[in-house]
Queue: 3 jobs
Job 1
Amino acid sequence: MIAERGSGTSLAILAAPHRDPTTTHREATTVTAAERRSTWAAATLVAHLVLAPLTALILAGTWHLGAAVWQLLLAAGAAALLHVGVSLAGRRPWAGYGIGALAMLVLMTMPFPGWSPGLLPSAACFPLTLWRLTAMVRTRSAVAALAVTAAGIVFTELVAWARLPAGVPGWTRLAEGGLLMLIAGGGWLAALLARRGHEARVRAERERLAAAVAGERAGIRRDLHDVIAHTVTVMVARIEAAAVTTTDPATRRELGDIGHGGTLATWTGDMVFSPAKGVAAIVLTNSVGDPALLTANLLAGRLGVPATPMSNPLTVVNAVLLGLTAGMSALLVTAAVRARRWVARRRASRRPWLVPRLLPLAVVTVLGVLLPALMGVQAGVFSFQYWIVTAWLLPLLVLFSLTCCVLGTVALARRLWCLRRAGHASTEPASA
C-alpha cells in the first residue's frame, strides 16, 4: 500500500509540466535588471540635483567677470543638453551619448573669458553617458564610442592649441589631451569590466539553476526507482516461490522468465552529479586624483605670479568631495581586506583575467601619484588664468588624490602578496 502511494506521488511529480531552465533564469534575473535600472536612476538623480545647481552658480559668477550674454546662454544650453543626454541614456544609450557628445564638443570649443566651460560640473554627465553605453551595448559598439570620444578630444585640443596666447608652450595641450584620454579610457575600461562581471554572474546563475533542476529530477528518478524496485522485488519473490511450488513444467518456465524479467527491471546505471561552479569578479570603479595646490604654488613663486591661498571653507562641494573620498576609501579598504578571498575566487574561475582585474587598482594608484604634480605644472604655466579651477577645484581634490595614492597602493600590494602566497602554496604539494 505504501509502495503504491509512493509510486503514485513520484509519477505525479514526473508528469508535472517541465519548466525550461532558461525561463527560470530569466525570472531570476529580472530582479537584477530592476536593481541595475534603479542604480542608474539614482545616479541620474544625483547628477541632476548636485551638478546642475553647481553649474548654475558658476555661470552666475562668470557673469560678473564680463562674459557675454550669448556665451552664458550657449554654455547653459550645452549643460542642459548634457543632463538631457544622461536622462535618455537609461533607455536609449546611443541617443544619450550622441547628445552628450555634441554638447561636450560645444563646451570645449566655445571661447570664454579666462577659462574653458568644459570644466563646468555638468560636464561630468558625458562620462556617465559613455559608461552607460559601454555597459549596455556590444563590445564593438563600445569601442566605436571610445574612438569617437578620442577623436573629439583630439579635435578640441587642436582648437585650443590654435588659440594659445604667445609665450605659452604647446606641450601643455598635449599633456591635457593625454590626461583626458587616460581618464576616458580608464572609465571605459572600468565599465567594460563591470559589464563582463555582470555577464559572468548571469552565466553562473544560469548554470546553477540548470544544475539544481537536473539534481531535482535525478532525485525524483532515484526515489521512484527505489519505490518500484521494492515493489518489483516482492513480486519477484512471490513469482519465484510460485515457480518452486508449482508442478507444471510449462508454468514453472513461464514464472521463471517473468521473475528474471522483474530482476532486470530493478537494475539502474550510475548517476554522476557535478555542482555548478560560479565565476566571481571584482571590478573597481576607476577614479583619478587631481591637481595639488602645493605644486602649483611652488611654481607660482618661481614664475613670479600670485600664489593661491590655502584656505578652503566648508561648502556643498566640500561635502560632496568628502563623500566621494569616503566612498573611495571604503572601496579600496574592502579590496585590501578581501584580497585573500578575491585570489581564491580568481583561481577557481575558468577565465582568471588577472591583468584586467588588477589594472583599475594600478590606474588609481598611478593617477593618484602623477596627476597632482602634472596639473600643478599646468596651472603654474597658465598663471592661474583658470580662476574657477583654482578657486574651488584644486584645493578640494588634494585629499581625494592622496586617498587614491595611498589606499590604492596598499590594496594592490595586498592582492599581489596574496597571489604570491597562493602560488607558493599550490607548488609545495606538487614538489613534495
Note: The CA atoms of residues 280 and 345 lie 6 Å apart.
Job 2
Amino acid sequence: METESTDRTSPPAGLRVVVVTGAPGVGKTRLAHQLVARYAVPAAAIDCDPVVYPWQSTESLYALMADTLRASIPVYRDWGSRVIVISGVVLAGRALEPLRAVFEELGADWVCYGLRATPDALAARIRRDAGSEHYVEGRLAESFLDAEVPGVPGVREIDTSALSATEVADAVVAAERGQLGPGWVLPDGATARAEAPAPGGAATPGATVPAPSGAAEDAGRAAGPG
C-alpha cells in the first residue's frame, strides 16, 4: 500500500471522509467501528449497507444513498466530526460516482480503502456472522463483487484473507498516519474515549463523536454494534 510522507505535527482544518468498500462479509462495518476509535480527532461512522443492499441495488437506491449522505454528513461535521468513516458496497458503477459528487460538493478530502478476501475466507466470515443467518445465500451470491474492488479509481487495496480484524485496522491506520501525519491518528495501542462535545459545541479532540439526535435515521445506521 502506498503512503505519502508528511511533516505535519497537527491536523489541518477540514473534513476527511474514509470510504471502506468490499464484498459483503469482508469486514467493512467492523473496520469502520475500529477506525473511529483510532483517530486523534473526533470521528464518526456511517454504515450504508442498510440503505442499499448490494443484491437489491438500483440506480434509484444509489441516488438515495447519495442523498442520505448529503444530508447526514453536514450534521456530523457541525456536531464536531473531523473524520467520517463510510462503510458499504461502494464500487465503480455501484454508488461510487454519486457519492464522489457528494464528497466534492461538500469540500471533503476523501480516500477509499478496498477490502478483499479469498472466496473461502469470505464464505467462512459470512457463515459465522451472527447477524447474517437470514440472508447468508444472498451475501454468498454477491461474493463476486470482490473482483470489482480493483476497478475503483485510486482505491487502496488490502487483502484481508490472512489478517485479523485488528491487523486490518492497523494497516489502514498506518496508511492514514503516513498521508495525514500523527496529528490525525492516535499512537499505536491507544484508542479514543467517547466523550460529550466540549463547551461551545466543538467535540473534544480524541473523542468518538456520538450520533446527534436523528442522525442515525438520516444515515441509515451510524456507528454502533454490528
Note: The domain at 16-180 is CATH 3.40.50.300 (Rossmann fold).
Job 3
Amino acid sequence: MDAPVSGELCPVQWKVPKAARWDLVERRKAEVLVAKTTDDSSTEFG
C-alpha cells in the first residue's frame, strides 16, 4: 500500500511506521471480535 501523492490526502497514519500501524489494526480487530462475542446483539460499530 503506497502513500497518496497529494499532501492533502495524506493522513497522519502514513507518518506512523508500518509495523506500529499494523499493530493498531490487529488490536482493533481483536477489540471488535471481543465485542462481538461479548454482546452479539450489539452491531453498532461505526
Note: Helices lie at 18-38.
